[in-house]
Specification:
This protein has four helices and no strands. Helix 2 packs antiparallel against helix 3, helix 2 packs parallel to helix 4 and helix 3 packs antiparallel against helix 4.
């Protein structure tokens, strides 16, 4: 059986936590419609957190970079915290017009 790719190619495919975390955080800077962004950013952040956990476990076996997993987790936590905070703010202030 022939291996599917070089170790570097496999490592690059496996390290997606930074991309998901960065995307969840970048949504807040790119779009003025925050309620819509929070509905997109939260799922991206949750996927980023799950990928960071998987990549952290893979880094212990030498199949992924532990630093990138940590960075992805931090970016995902920031994106998730921003989305949840905004949703809580809107729930506590029903008199505010929601941006749509």
């Amino acid at each position: 059986m022939i291996p599917g790719g070089t170790p570097d190619e496999t490592r690059e495919k496996a390290e997606l936590a930074v991309w998901f975390g960065g995307a969840s955080l970048a949504c807040w800077f790119c779009c003025p419609f925050w309620i819509l962004v929070s509905l997109v950013a939260l799922p991206l952040a949750l996927v980023g957190l799950a990928r960071a956990f998987v990549e952290h476990r893979a880094s212990k076996a030498g199949r992924a970079n532990g630093t990138r997993a940590l960075v992805g987790a931090v970016l995902s936590l920031l994106g998730a915290a921003a989305a949840i905070t905004y949703m809580i703010f809107l729930a506590n202030h029903p008199d505010l017009p929601v941006q749509e």
